[in-house]
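Researcher: Let's do a round of design. I'm pasting the structure tokens now; please hold your answer until I've finished.
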């Protein structure tokens, strides 16, 4: 087990850990970023880049890419880490697949990432919109590869089958944290249920991917167990990144994980049987997603 010092507050009094230098990011600027910004606004699209306060938005949008969030921007879940609004969704736009497909075509992206809020109030969890968005994107941009980052379907396996049947190259479902922290971090989620969702996705012949946030209070042994569980359930690709508290209302950062420990987890994940591990403080689910399409599995 690799042991590294925890970043301590400057004084002995209880205080939040100070954000270290390695978490600094550049503000989004440049013509490529401005073009993506314009297209997103014109087509009235939601991006998780904005809703999730992603630290890589400047880098990714500057490269002309973005992760689109379908099915609205109000989630039926109340996860303690997430900056997306929680409530009773009212938006259900059957024309959204066309608009997203057209925007991806206009942007000329080679690899698109699609994600969504949880829509637990819908009988099919929004699966039909998922399916049509992938299909229409492929029809309009046949050379574009697609990753879908899908939510927990609450064991509605028919909905899962529809969500992953559109022809996407990668299907991702984030575990978010280790099993012991689920009640705190994902109170409406279940660790074993998410593992089963990944297992069923792999059984359907898909390239599987998941993500875990670090710095929520997880122990190293718990991280190793999570990796073993994911491998046992057919996971191919894992992303590991630092949790950053989006607002004062959300769960606080327990610690800032040193880049060396991220590197250690990457090596451990590969040693334990994962095919690819993207690991670093600023890594998010869709970071370098275009690389994950061609990972040998």
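Researcher: That's everything. Go ahead.
Model: Designed sequence:
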């Amino acid at each position: 087990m690799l042991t590294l010092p925890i970043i301590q507050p400057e004084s002995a009094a209880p205080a939040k850990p100070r954000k270290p230098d390695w978490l600094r990011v550049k503000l989004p600027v440049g013509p490529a970023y401005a073009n993506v910004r314009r297209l997103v606004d014109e087509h009235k699209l939601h991006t998780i880049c904005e809703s999730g306060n992603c630290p890589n938005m400047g880098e990714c949008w500057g490269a002309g890419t973005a992760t689109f969030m379908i099915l609205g921007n109000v989630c039926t879940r109340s996860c303690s880490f997430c900056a997306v609004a929680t409530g009773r969704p009212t938006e259900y736009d059957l024309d959204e697949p066309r608009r997203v497909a057209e925007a991806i075509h206009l942007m000329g992206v080679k690899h698109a990432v699609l994600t969504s809020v949880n829509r637990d109030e819908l009988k099919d969890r929004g699966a039909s919109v998922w399916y049509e968005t992938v299909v229409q994107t492929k029809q309009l941009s046949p050379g574009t590869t697609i990753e879908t980052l899908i939510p927990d379907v609450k064991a509605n396996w028919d909905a899962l089958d529809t969500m992953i049947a559109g022809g996407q190259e990668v299907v991702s479902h984030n575990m978010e944290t280790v099993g012991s922290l689920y009640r705190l971090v994902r109170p409406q989620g279940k660790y074993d249920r998410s593992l089963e969702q990944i297992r069923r996705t792999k059984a359907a012949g898909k390239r599987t991917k998941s993500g875990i946030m670090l710095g929520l209070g997880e122990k190293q042994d718990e991280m190793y167990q999570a990796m073993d569980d994911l491998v046992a359930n057919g996971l191919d690709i894992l992303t590991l990144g630092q949790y950053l508290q989006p607002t004062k209302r959300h769960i606080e950062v327990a610690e800032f994980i040193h880049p060396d420990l991220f590197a250690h987890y990457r090596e451990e994940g590969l040693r334990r049987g994962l095919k690819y591990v993207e690991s670093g403080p600023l890594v998010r689910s869709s970071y370098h997603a275009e690389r994950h399409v061609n990972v040998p599995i």
